[in-house]
Design a protein that fits this description.
Blueprint (H helix, E strand, L loop, with lengths): L2 H7 L11 E3 L9 E7 L8 E6 L5 E6 L6 E5 L5 E6 L4 E6 L3 H6 L10 E3 L9 H9 L6 H18 L7 H10 L4 H8 L3 H11 L4 H19 L4 H7 L5 H12 L3 H14 L1
Antiparallel strand pairs: 1-2, 2-7, 3-6, 4-5, 4-7, 5-8
Length: 272
């Protein structure tokens, strides 16, 4: 689940015992970085939440500060999963927009998808030592200082990036705004379907069709949690053929029916 998804669909107060905090990126980083966020508290706490994480085409680079030395992980999650989040497990994370890991980190997500990778063990990118040096400073800093250190490291990566800007992020934004059927994407966006497929697999680690599915599910989750629209109307609003098709796809990707999802989210909103 991206941090944006946390803020959009789960009441922020439900994370307050975990000391969850979210930060907008530096304006220069905004096309590539969705947000920076932290979880954990310096005070002793045994609070924990089990949360559902949804893929959205982005990636996460997380610094685990609960160990004596910083442990850095990278994840390009491609399916919904359940995670146990502990207040005692302090971490600071960078959530990348689709194409962000490719552009800023020089990573090709198609080679890393579906795995939680430990930097320095599972793979060692050229910037690994610089990030570890920056992460080692985080232990002595307050939260704003931690965020600033990571932002400065990202800005250095932005200056050093060898990746071409290209128009992929424009395609991503166009699909997010209007998630067309995969068969329509190439025509509507003015690129060949083959080029679109290769570009998305290389820079996002997923196919255009998968990304369209992520966008539709995200939009459906927003509508289910924040509106009283009938399920049939939600289905049409999000580009599904009909309500049965919507229910089937939604349950397959989120592990619960649209009605179950709506009930759970409304319970969080009104009882937390």
């Amino acid at each position: 689940m991206s941090a944006n998804n946390m803020a959009d669909v789960i009441p922020t107060r439900s994370f307050s015992p975990l000391n969850f905090q979210r930060f907008a990126p530096h304006p220069r980083l905004a096309p590539w970085v969705q947000c920076l966020w932290s979880i954990g508290t310096e005070q002793a706490s045994d609070h924990q939440n089990i949360e559902k994480f949804y893929p959205d085409g982005g990636a996460s680079l997380t610094v685990d500060l609960s160990s004596p030395a910083p442990l850095v992980t990278f994840e390009q999650n491609t399916s919904t999963s359940m995670r146990l989040i502990k207040a005692s497990h302090a971490c600071v994370s960078i959530r990348f927009n689709p194409t962000g890991a490719y552009f800023l980190l020089g990573l090709e997500p198609q080679e890393l998808s579906g795995q939680l990778l430990v930097l320095g063990r599972d793979f060692t990118p050229t910037w690994h030592s610089d990030l570890i040096a920056a992460a080692s400073r985080l232990y002595t800093l307050g939260l704003s200082g931690k965020i600033n250190v990571l932002e400065q490291w990202l800005l250095q990566r932005l200056s050093a990036s060898a990746a071409k800007h290209g128009d992929t992020w424009k395609l991503v934004n166009a699909i997010r705004a209007r998630p067309l059927a995969p068969s329509e994407l190439g025509t509507q966006l003015g690129v060949s379907r083959r080029t679109l497929e290769r570009t998305f697999q290389r820079q996002l680690g997923v196919s255009p069709g998968q990304y369209v599915g992520y966008c539709r599910t995200h939009r459906a989750r927003q509508l289910l949690a924040t509106s009283t629209l009938p399920l049939a109307d939600v289905a049409l609003e999000c580009g599904y053929y009909d309500q049965p098709h919507f229910s089937h796809v939604f349950q397959k990707s989120t592990f619960e029916t649209p009605a179950e999802y709506r009930k759970r989210k409304l319970s969080q909103i009104y009882k937390v």
